Amino acid sequence: MSHRIDCLQYANWSEKIFRQMREGAVDAVHVTIAYHENFAEMVQQVVAWNRRFEAYPDLIFQGRTGDDVRRARREQRTAIFFGYQTPEPIAADIGLVEVCHTLGARFMQLTYNNQSLLATGCYEAEDPGLTRMGKQVIAEMNRVGLVVDMSHSAERSTLQAIEHSRRPISITHANPARWHPARRNKSDTVLKALAESGGMLGLSLYPHHLKGGTDCTLSDFCEMAARTAEVMGADKVGIGTDLCQDQPDSVVEWMRVGRWSREIDYGEGSASAPGFPPQPDWFKDNRDFGTIEAGLRATGLSADEVAGIMGENWLRFYDANFGPERSAA
């Protein structure tokens, strides 16, 4: 069986979920440890994860390289990779990029939904693109091996990040906008530029990103994956479920509002139902990765293409991009 990698989750972590990862044979998960957290708050998230690694050493451990995914498979555990959905942990200090990588961060979004010091989020009315600092931070991220993630970024900023980055970037959790026009889903222009630069897309199972929402069928999702593979190349597509399992609805307010607003931002969902939407019945938790794999096989994708989407493509990307730039002194 191929390696299984989920390149984005934000669950309410528990032993139950870690055991479900093992039941689903999930070898690696990229977990969000910052939405709006500053550096000190992010470090407290690292501390909390260290306690989880200590409490459940038979189930999880911290991942830092692609080889840790292989180790996880051998030891029947799950490697946990840290990432940020915001650049807030580095604030205005480019020196913290390397510090964050040393702490284990392997992905950092240049924006969440708003304008940041680096680039523009997908909820802003105008998108002026990368800032001066954004270009410098990308160069530093390239140097140390902290992957640029543009999942929540606006189109011009995303295209400029792809062009400016010396190393391939990622969109860890989004779907094609032509399939479902959610604000966060990506145009074919972005997907083609991402693929041509060697970047990776993680297909999202978050209902607001799915055609039909909670009622999206397995067949619809997997056919979308097959068509995306045609546009980008099957080797540039993976999974990034954006699974928010067992989170209370109150967490949505932190995700969407943080500290920047006194008004409630309901995001892509209904203003009358600001909580988490139910997952499709064919993907409720980590035990359902086999269902996705079977659905992808049913589309006519080859065995190697399916294996790539389930995890081998991300593993190759991890191998190439989590360490220092090879040309660096």
Structure, explained:
The protein is of the alpha/beta class and 329 residues long. It has a single domain, classed as Metal-dependent hydrolases (TIM Barrel), CATH 3.20.20.140. Helices cover 39% and strands 12% of the residues. The protein has eleven helices and nine strands. Strands 1, 2, 3, 4, 5 and 6 form a six-stranded parallel β-sheet that branches. Helix 10 packs across helix 11. The relative contact order is 0.15.
Q: Which structural class do the helices and strands define?
A: alpha/beta
Give the percentage of residues in beta strands: 5-15%
Number of helices: 11
CA distance, first residue to last residue: 39 Å
Strand tally, please? 9
Characterize the largest beta sheet: strand count, sense, and whether it forms a barrel. 6 strands, parallel
* Gross CATH architecture: Alpha-Beta Barrel
Q: C-alpha Rg, in Å?
A: 18 Å
Query: What is the domain total for the residues?
Result: 1
Look at the structure and name the CATH superfamily: Metal-dependent hydrolases
Identify the overall geometry: globular
Residue ranges: pLDDT <50 for 5 or more in a row? Answer: none
Order of helices and strands: EHEHEHEHEHEHEHEHEHHH
Share in helix: 25-40%
Query: Mean pLDDT, rounded to whole units?
Result: 95
